[in-house]
Design a protein that fits this description.
alpha+beta; Acid-sensing ion channels like fold; two-stranded antiparallel sheet; elongated; disordered N terminus
């Protein structure tokens, strides 16, 4: 039989009141199966309670960590949202890492919330830079010089780049406050600077900003920093630091293809030597297949106002991705009606390899035939007739910021930072320009031909007059006098 021995409840505790129940049985020998079943049920009940207790405690501890951590994006994982929203935020957060490391095969196209999330993921430049200095001017915050831009590696910052209205066409979708520059542009790749505006002191207003002298003291100096606790070796397992790419102001850089690294604890000095290639107006009249280049306004691009080989390849990859995947990657130029692809990267990587292979095959097939402009697998991205490239000579040495003269007087909290320094300057005051010219024009051909004849046969202008005389005047006179073009028949 069973009876209640005690019931100690406090009504003020409500549902949390504990009830103690004692079971009294007769002194007879109990059945073994009944006791085992009772013990088993009790153990199962206690085990489930322990699992639930540890699970709720772990969940609450993880939520507390996410709300207080300084790692960007973790606070969105702890918000009380639905599973779909949490999965979507995890996809946005994964954009900061290398795409080859994480795969979400079942994810599709992103919604319009991507515009909001990417603003929240944007890194604060003041947290990752100490100061910037241009030439011998006073140091200033780097956010005064750099503007955010969306590239293939994520959200980056650019200096001295043209505004998006000068690069993209009007129908291209524009992210808010990205790739935006309010400075007045008085430069283009074909004609260079146009010195129209000037300041009250007589100096010219130039944008993009140009360096008037070469040397270390006339360059751009940047001090980078980052909290040591925020270093994530999962996103970049090989090295930690910053990627830098030098490019022309009207070109969209692609960091996956061309960059150099600025590691922590080192100072990098980059001596830049420009290489500019021009094309004469005499060559402009030739067909692009003969001169093997395009002028900036000669080949039409769907998304870009000016033609460059880099912009052409990016547009070609964009068109091919949109055709196969029915969406584009987040950094690609697009129209407002085009969807942004999710994290299913197999489609993108497969398309890139397939597009490059098709382009090689098409180049071999179309060497003697016309190019099909509607075929998006063939880019036909020739070199620009006028282009600027930069050769960089790097020097690297260890740089311990803690031993700097003023570092010891600053906040001691900065000891937890990792520092790096970058100095970019022109190597020489002048640089040589290459120019494409026609090797032999019509006049050059006649001059060289006449020179060879004069050298080997004594040919001259008098000899040319003799040839004209015998082929015209002499024949006419023979017809009039002798009724035969060679003269007397005898």
């Amino acid at each position: 039989m069973a009876s209640v021995k005690s019931s100690n409840c406090d009504e003020s505790l409500g549902n949390e009141c504990a009830i103690s129940i004692s079971t009294i049985t007769s002194p007879e020998v109990p059945r073994q199966g009944t006791i085992e079943r009772a013990i088993t049920k009790k153990q199962v009940k206690n085990g489930r309670a322990k699992i639930s207790y540890y699970y709720s405690g772990t969940k609450g501890y993880f939520r507390e960590y996410c709300e207080s951590t300084t790692i960007h994006g973790f606070k969105y994982l702890s918000e009380k949202r639905s599973i779909c929203e949490r999965k979507r935020n995890a996809q946005y957060f994964a954009l900061l890492c290398r795409y080859s490391q994480i795969y979400f095969y079942d994810s599709g196209k992103l919604s319009n919330d991507f515009n909001k999330i990417i603003d929240q993921m944007k890194l604060n430049l003041s947290e990752y830079t100490e100061e910037c200095q241009v030439g011998e001017n006073d140091p200033e915050p780097c956010e005064n010089l750099f503007q955010p831009i969306i590239l293939d590696e994520g959200i980056c910052y650019t200096y001295n780049m043209l505004d998006r209205t000068a690069i993209f066409r009007d129908e291209v979708y524009r992210f808010k406050d990205y790739h935006k520059n309010e400075n007045t542009v008085n430069w283009d790749i074909d004609s260079g600077y146009t010195f129209n505006d000037s300041t009250p002191d007589g100096s010219f207003l130039n944008y993009p900003n140009n360096a008037y002298l070469s040397g270390y003291e006339n360059g751009l100096h940047i001090k980078f920093r980052q909290l040591a606790s925020e270093l994530d070796y999962f996103c970049s397992p090989n090295s930690q630091g910053f990627k830098v790419s030098l490019h022309a102001p009207h070109v969209i850089p692609q960091l996956e293809k061309q960059f150099f690294q600025v590691p922590f604890g080192d100072a990098i000095m980059a001596a830049v030597q420009p290489k500019m290639t021009k094309t004469s107006q005499q060559v402009r009249k030739y067909h692009p297949d003969k001169r093997e280049c395009y002028f900036s306004n000669e080949k039409y691009l769907r998304y870009f106002k000016q033609y460059t080989s880099s912009n052409c390849r990016l547009e070609c990859y964009t068109n091919y991705t949109a055709k196969i995947c029915e969406c584009v990657r987040f950094y690609m130029p697009k129209k407002s009606s085009t969807d942004i692809c999710g994290m299913s990267h197999i489609c993108h990587f497969t398309n890139r390899v397939q597009m490059q292979w098709n382009s090689v095959l098409k180049q071999k097939e179309t060497q003697h035939t016309a190019t099909n402009q509607n075929d998006t697998s063939f880019c036909d991205c020739r070199r620009s007739c006028v282009e600027i490239n930069y050769e960089v000579q790097l020097s690297q040495y260890a740089w311990n910021y803690g031993y700097m003269p003023l570092a010891r007087f600053r906040d001691k909290k900065k000891e937890s930072y990792r520092y790096a320094r970058l100095s970019i300057f022109f190597k020489e005051d002048f640089f040589l320009t290459l120019e494409r010219n026609e090797l032999y024009g019509p006049i050059d051909f006649l001059a060289n031909f006449g020179g060879l004849l004069g050298l080997f046969t004594g040919f001259s202008l008098l000899s040319l007059a003799e040839i004209v005389y015998f082929l015209s005047v002499r024949i006419c006179c023979n017809f009039r006098l002798h009724k035969f073009w060679t003269g007397p028949k005898n």
